[in-house]
Amino acid sequence: MYELSRIYLRSVGPSGARYENVLLDFSKAGRPVTGYQEDLFASVSEVLRPSPASVVFLENGGGKSVLLKLVFSVLLPGQRNIVGGADGSSLGDFVGPRDVAHVVLEWTHSVTGRLLITGKTMAWKGQAVSAAADNFLEQWYCFFPSEKLGLDNLPVVEEGRYLAFQVYRVQLNAAYVEDSHLELFWPRTHRDWTERLGKLGIDTELFRYQRHMNAGEGEAVRAFTMETDERFVDFLLEAVLLEQDLAPLADLVAEHVEKLAKRGVVLLERDFVEGTLALLDPLRRNAERAAISRAASVRAQASLSVFAGRITARRNREISSLTGLGEQVKEAEKSVQEVTLRASALQNREDALRLQKAVLALQAVEERTSELEEKARRAEVEVRAWESTSKVLSHLKNAAEAERLRALVQESDDRARPLLEARTLAAVSLACALLDLAQKAADAAAILAESAKEHQNREAVAREKQQTAIGNSSEARANASTFANLISNVEKRIEQAVSDGLIERPETLLATLSANRNKLADLSKEVVSIQKQFNELIDARPLLEADQRAADHAAKDAEQRYDAAKAAVEDAHRRRILLQAEDRLAELLQTEDVLLDQDAPTLAKSLAEAIADHTRKSVALMVEEARDERDRLALTEGDLLPPPIEVEEACAALVKEDIQAWPGWRYLSEIQNRDRRRELIRIHPHLVAGILLNSKDHIDDARRILSDERYQSASVVTVATTEELERSGSGVPSFTLPFKPSLYDEAAAELEHEQIEFRHRDRATAIAALTDARERDSDLVGRVRDWLRDYPESRVTELEEHRNRAAEELTAATAAVAGVERAKEQNDRLLSQARAKQQTLGEEKTRLNDRVRALSTLAEEADKIPGWRNDRRGLLEAAEVESETAERHGIDALNENRLATDAVREADRQRRAKQDLDVERAALPGAGEASNSDARPSESVPVLRELYAAAAEQYQRIGTGEELIEELAIAERTAAVTTMACEALSSEIRERAEELLETPEGASAVGRTSALELAERAKAATGKEHQDALIHRVVCRKEVQQLRKAWEDKDAGPIEEFLDPIPADIADCDLAIRQTLDEYAAAARLVIERKKELELQQRELSRAEEAAKDFGVLAKALEEDLAEPAEAPYEGDYSSAANKHTFLTVTRRSARSAASEDADHVKKAGRSLHTFTRSDQFAELGAAVQREINATDAEGLAERAEPWEERLRPRLRSLNDDLEQTERHRRNIVTNLKGETDKAIGILRSAQRVSRLPSGLGDWHNEEFLRFQFELLGNEILIQRLGEVVDEAAAGRSSDSRKVQRTGLALVLRAVHASTPKGIKVFVLKPDTTLHAERERVSRVKKVFSGGQQLTAAILLYCTMAALRANDRGRRLEHRAGLLFLDNPIGRANADYLLDLQRSVARALGVQLIYTTGLFDDKALRQFPLIIRLRNDADLRSARKYLSVDARVKGHLDALPPSDGTGQISTARIYNHGRDTGQAPPSKGT
């Protein structure tokens, strides 16, 4: 497995992110490995692997996405595989017209350190950008670098210019010619490139998943976010399983798919044949029983007919006995009606009295309401008086104070009394004048206000009249306009009718209308005639269709009979040909031609004898096989030829009794000297073939033990000791048959084994041949016997004759169908002609009818035009009159408005004058003494003002002191103010307040407050009582309204008719109501009595009618059974008649039921057969017998049951043979599928095992990050479910009608889910800060994980999947799972514990991490041993932005010595590699 060490980008990228000459170096930052040894004598050195975790930093918008697109384009060829390719962008946007772009990746092998170069070159054909995709040139290549050709010295530039596209390829090919170790490879297709990378150990499928993970910045979570656990399982298995590994399974299914697809049909037909055979036999038996029971019901019918005649006579007698009862019932009904009317009148009187009572109650309530209203007013005055006591008291106090000061002034002014009197007299005169003038102003203001109000009222009236006149004028003009429009519209329509050709000129409208009406009448008659002809043809059509159905049915029956007869003949011929073609039959008859009809009995006998002969030979061979079986098995196990079975059994019996015994041959085989063995065999052959004991002391015990009958032997078996075997004796026979050396010699035993095996193979072959011959002969004898049973002598000839008759019937039926079809065609043709003519006439009639309707409407409206013109003229004149009236009223309204405005303005002026005069008067001393009753001075007000001013001035010079006068003036002003306040109160309230102040409660403030509270409570109580009275009045009014409405709804007439005399008060009403109720109760009782009498009479009539009706019903029920009326009627009651009728009916029904039941059994059996053959299960079968059964009615099924049975039995045997072969193929497929399913389940378990986390992760220590939970089915049920999966794949549809693919992967996925019916639950560990071992379902990751946790889980799942793919492809020892290149995962998951977890799992599973980011988070970045910082600088001259490597920060933490508790400071240098120069720029910092 390779790791990415360097990325070289040259002359590629858009103008905003241009990679002109950029090298991203991830090399020499990992752990050391042993270098690659190119040849036997080359030296080997350690090399450093690339950084296991790196970050490429570049600000957002700088070109990270461009870098990802370019890198992935090397590994994933094709436009649709571009990272983020969904946005429509292509790599052609990254290559300029004169660019030769290079993207080169250098890889380092994780075990050997060998370098690998994979690159891609891009350019535009003709150095011109084009919209045509074919003009964009792309070429991939790879090679193993050497000292002469590597990443650092690629022939990209020559003499400062980029090599052309083809020149670059030529240069590489030239280098490959010089050094074949480069192994340069140029793929011809994308598939070649993908396969080459796979052979090199670069799994491109992993980069396809990474492409989805990099669809958006930080969006790797979406690639592993599954809505269900099942989807995740499918995703994992699809990622690991290879389609080519499952191709044999798919091919196996495809090979037998036709038979498997038809398996359901064959099973269906087999079920149909079995079910039909099971239903035909009861159908035939039930038909035989049905014939016996049809005669029994005829006898019961005669008895029932006699009984029907007697019942009819009884009905006639009962009808004649109903006279007189009807009249009695009518008289009773009239009496009930009279008493009912009397009760209704009393009920109306009660309602009238109740209405009168409600009216009287309403009057009383209204009087009470008026009283309470006055009481409430008085309570209001009382409250206002108590509230005004403070004002009145203040007025009295101020008046007293002014009087007191006035007295003091009076005492001190005695010497100035004349002047004071003169001033007072002048003030009083002025006050009287001012008071009189103010009164005049007030009177004038009141008169003006009243005048303004009158003018305003007159203005309103004038305005109203104006608006009315305007409305009338507008309405008249609108109506006149309407008439004008009507006249115009009619005239236009007449002109349009003339232009449309409906009439010649307006004057001919009426004549044209009359002519069209006559034409419409003629056309209507013709339409009626055509409709009658059409109806006759329509009525004839059902008859023809019925004839056609009958002919079709007959033809179909004939065709089915012919098909059945033909099929029977063909089946007989086919079976005969197949049997006669059997060579075995000719062999048995010892002739070339087999005549089955004649030779069948002989063949059946010969085949039976041959089968018996085969059986005897097989038994003989098996006996011989059993004889050699013991020896063969012993020799096969590497042992010697065993001694006789009786010797072994005897030895076993002795050993069981603790006597050590050996077969002679076994003892002899232990002797290594062959000559010695031969000598002993020659001397003691009987002992060698016998049993040897270790001790002679055991001879007697052995004789006793072996004396049992179980150990008797048919051959010579000698028992002796081993000593006797070693001793020579003269009693030994001089000649014996030679013994088999394989009893004691290994070489001879091996030779014997070969001979026995040869005999075993020969016998096995012979037995197999005999078994096969016996099975073939058994099959043949079964077929011959079936032939003899199905086709006895002359049966085939009868079938042929039946076929010929069926053919003749079919020809006749076909001719009848043709005749009916011709008649139907003639009818259809006439019907079509009638329909066409009917449609034409109908359209003509519709057009003519529309014309007549339009002309009629036009004529009617034309007659109205003179009247409309007169109406319009009158409306226009009326509008003019109304306009003049409106104008006149408008002028009047303006005048009145002006007068009202002047009056209001003058009234306001008079009010202001009055206010000024009152103020002036209030300031005068002694003004309170002036009143309206005083005589007004003769002088004018200005003169009086001058006089008062002179008197006041004289008094001021000679009068009292200033302070006392000022105090008096203040007191007088205060008194004047309080006087005005009191005058504002009404006289009633002011007088009541003065009276209240004289009461004890008014003597103090506390008393007045308490009295006010009492008055307010009294006011509230009175108000509540008044409100209750108002509510009661509303209730009474509503009651009166309801009663009056109820009375009006009854429409009983005037209420006075029921109130004689009219009650004067409520008590009289109550008395009258009680009397009326008593009378109504008596009338109601009388109604009930009369109704009871009527009910009794009606019941008597009903009983009589019921008797007549019952016997009538019974006679009606027996009408069908009545032959002729009987002379003697039935004398019993209806119950006995009904019982006898029931008995006779039950007797007949029982007889009929017996016949019907047997017939029903036949029908039921037929229906069962029809239901079975017509069921939806067999709807698509279409077998010949099925069609015949379905076409045969229920009555004819029993007659044809036996022939159908004879035809179905051979078909059942054929179907069973086909199913057996199909099942064998199906079992083979299911076995293969089960193996692949077990492998897939093993992959899931392997994924769980591979996801085990490394140590040092807290609670996650050695925990499995991924865990599967499922329950497998038992083997039998699993085989059944897998068979269903295979069946659905063969059919191409699942049970719920979803499309099913037949690929190997799709089969395995469906099999996995079928083997786990409860589903597969997938759990993952939830990353958190404490690494607590909390698991969540994969399907809930999106809901419960945070963004960083989702991303971390996605990275861990990817690492697990990559390790699983590596493990599945045999790279388990390398412990490397490839590269993960992600765009900005740090932006979503920058927490330390998440980054540690990502790195730990990636390191444990061998995944190299390379992240890009635009977030400079030093806390997160320092978690990575290598950081490459890119910079995007603008070139103003070329209007481009170029990317360059700004810094390469490499961590050295691994190289630090162990901690000694002290700190060390070291320096780090960051180098900025030059863009084009080979020299390093100066250091940017230390």
TrEMBL record:
Transmembrane segments: none annotated. Keywords: Coiled coil. Residues 905-921 have a biased composition (Basic and acidic residues). The keyword Transcription regulation does not apply. The keyword Transport does not apply. Residues 329-389, 513-598, 796-851, 1077-1107 form a coiled coil. Residues 905-939 are annotated as: Disordered. This is Chromosome segregation ATPase.
